[in-house]
Amino acid sequence: MAVPVAFAEGRITKLRREAKLALAPAEAAALRARLAAAVGDPAVSRIVSVYFDGLGWPLAARAAAAPHDTVKLRFKEYFPDRGGSGSDRVVLELKREAHGVTRKERVWVPRQGLETALRDPGVAALRAWIGDGPLLPAVAVSYEREVYQGEETWRVTVDSGVEFFRIDPRLALSTEPLRRELLGEPAGREERTIVELKHLETHLPSWLAAYGGARGYSKFAQAMRCVHGVGEECAAVG
Question: 44-72 burial by CB neighbour count: b if 16+ within 10 A, else e?
């Protein structure tokens, strides 16, 4: 099923709830089997995300201290880009999350227009958190994403092979696609599978709701621990 624009890919998403789970391999395999039986095979993509922050990493410090109340700015690049028209593009997202309820402002932009898009008034609203300094590419994260969706009101994403990278700003803002092989060796890896249950109010099937509430996992916070030492220590590669 195609993901409805109003739920997942519009300029501004509806307020929705997200529960994040970090599952061991056996738990993840059981959930995948249940999801596939319920809604069919998933759509699969490799994703590369680059997160931005200000001097001193104020957004990362906030995410580490209070993962239930965060503000994130990132772009995501999909391989393959199933909704694209053959041109290189990224989706720029400003995400606010408070106590399991999320709101995203997003816009698809051509790669060559990324730096211009970062001057968008919506992005400028970040000044309340990052001050007047420059906005910097802070870290990159790469993973394989499976998307399961059977109804318009909920979907489940399953992310595996999650890796965290130091990112060269010139590479992040290049006009060329930022493929995984360009990122080099990761600074850390997430051995668990990261599952997000995304739904409108009261619309999550009971068997999925039984997995529990938000656990506060943040790829951004984990990447910043691995790469820049913000927050607690990250498990090293190896």
Answer: ebebbbbbbbbeebbbbbbbbeebeebbb
Distance CA 148, CA 167 (A): 30
Q: How far apart are alpha carbons 16 and 5 in whole angstroms?
A: 14
Give 2's contacts (C-beta < 8 A, 6+ positions apart): none
| Residue 73, SS3 per DSSP | strand
pLDDT tens per residue, range 102-152: 888 888 999 999 988 887 766 766 667 667 778 899 999 999 999 999 788
Amino acid identity, position 178: L
- CATH number for the region 5-228 comes to 3.20.100.30
How far from 17 is each of 7, 25, 68, 178, 213, CA to CA, in Å? 11, 25, 12, 30, 10
Rg, C-alpha atoms of the chain:
17
- Residue ranges of the domains in the chain? 5-228
Whole-angstrom distance, CA of residue 126 vs CA of residue 132: 10
Residue 161's Cα: distance from chain center in Å? 14
Burial class (CB in 10 A: 0-12, 13-18, 19+), 215: middle
